[in-house]
Amino acid sequence: MKTFELDEEKVLVVKQNGVISALGSKCTHYGAPLVNGALGDGRIRCQWHGACFKLATGDIEDFPGLDSLPCYKVTIENDSVKVRARKSELSSNKRVKPMAKRAAPASEKIVVIGGGPSGATAVETLRQEGFTGQIVLVCKENYLPYDRVKVSKQMDFEIGKAQFRTDQFYQDNGIEVLKGVAATAVDTAANTVSLSNGAELQYDKLYVATGCKPRKPNVPGADLKNVRVLKDYDDSAYAFPLLNPDVEIVVIGSSFIGMEAANFCVDKVKSVTVVGRGAVPFRSTWGERIGAAILALFESKGVKYIANNGIKKINGSGAVSSVELNDGQILKCDILFCGIGSSYFTDFLKGSGVELQPDGSIETNEFMQTNVPNVYAGGDIAYAPVWSYHNRKVAIGHYGLAQYHGRAAAVNMLGKNEPIKAVPYFWTMLFGKGFRYAGHGSYDDIIYAGDVEGLKFMAFFLKEHEVVSVTSCGMDPLVSKFAERLAEDRKLYRSDLQEDPLAWSKAA
User: Fold this and answer.
1) Which residue in 6, 8, 10, 15 sits closest to 32, CA to CA?
2) Where's the Rieske domain (predicted)?
3) Cβ atoms 131, 124 nearer than 8 A
4) How far is Cα 479 from Cα 499, in angstroms, rounded to an integer?
5) Which of 36, 136, 242, 451 has its Cβ near the most Cβ atoms within 10 Å?
6) With 0-12 CB in 10 A as exposed, 13-18 as middle and 19+ as buried, what is 304?
7) 274-298 burial, b for 16+ CB within 10 Å, e for fewer?
């Protein structure tokens, strides 16, 4: 892979198996230079967040993001490679795949419940795959689908800039969007969805991607003002104006949401204290050593961490003023952020005929289909097969995977019968350090490469002899290379790591 200048813009040129392709040079998600990404079999995976693009067409095949890359014309003349491109595509570096027009009258109606990344991807994919019927997207929030990861990472973001598309885009493509409306019930016998505004929608096929509901502590005072979760734009829009140099922040829970919130608040407030259930953050996910290195990073930035503790009581009159911990400590607190997990937004499906797991998730097959043949589910709520995890079923709350589910559900609602081949990919940014994670599964051993304490490392999580997942910091694009390896059904084993844990990445 190499980049070349063309009309003062950059083009990515790739030679693989004797074929030369030319594409847009930057990932359409956040603009990562793809020349530094991972080259897989016929596609490129972004080194930052794992989005994948097909070499032959530039089409996006895995996520995050919605747009595909422009694909340019390549000719060979006298051993010279010539690339021809439209100036508009060179400057934009992205394109929207062509969409079918809605037919009138529409013969079939598909309803999508959930205005998150999964629902947004589903409705676009339906049109891109030729569906000409009626599409209705039901959004509980008063906004079009937007970049939800910013809620905890960047509380001061503007919703207008974070929305994936405009109202005009959905109108032009015949996609009806209902904002500020929630689904309250589904009747799978009558094929209807009841809405919070009293209306009822008929459907031929239904996709449910309603996501998670963050928890608040089950303690006295949890309903006081300024006890906040960080799930939606309104959460961050409420919290950000409250941050000032006199404010003392407490974060309950050392989850990714909790630690991202603490990261954002540092230098904007008087103090930030994280109350964690474990000795270090992320211990259950990444182990003690990585958690300790991340904790050292936070403490170097002035964050106080109180380990092996929890909240017994939230004090205040109207608004929170302090919190009492399980060990009796009392912390002054003006805003309490909660990062202690979540439940599934699926209660409205009780009695619908769609079977719910005991935890509220929805089991699907490899086509994202529930026990009701014309009802599909995806995103956080889907208890679905994971290709890289021997197709075992699990519910995973990853942003890119939610979009992947949305695309898969759409093509399968249209009868394409394409089984999902999911490779979970996750990322977080903490004080300028990018952490990537790919794969999934419980582990019983960790092998490290690089300097964990210096936050320039790669860690391999093994179950017996198989590497089930990896994480890295400061070593891009290794996690993306591993993800591509899993996508190609090539496992990594303990024996591959013995002499040089990174040898596999150099040979790939």
Assistant:
1) 10
2) 1-83
3) no
4) 19
5) 136
6) middle
7) bbbbeebbbbeebbebbbbbbbebb
- The tokens describing 99, both together, are 């969409």
Computed on alpha carbons and rounded to an integer, the radius of gyration of the chain in Å comes to 24
Q: Are 119 and 112 in contact (CB under 8 A)?
A: yes
Say yes or no to pLDDT of 343 above 70. yes
The residue assigned the tokens 């050593």 is 289
- Please say whether the beta carbons of 335 and 264 come within 8 A: no
Tens of pLDDT, residues 401-416: 999 999 999 999 999 9
Tell me the pTM: 0.97
Q: Count CB neighbours of 2 within 10 A.
A: 9
Per-residue pLDDT of 436-491, as tens digits, reads 999 999 999 999 999 999 999 999 999 999 999 999 999 999 999 999 999 999 99
Cis amide bond preceding 98, omega within 30: no
Q: Whose CA is closest to 381, among 365, 404, 357, 400? A: 357
Terminal C-alpha separation, the chain? 14
- Please classify residue 176 by burial: count the beta carbons closer than 10 Å to its beta carbon, then call 0-12 exposed, 13-18 middle and 19+ buried: middle
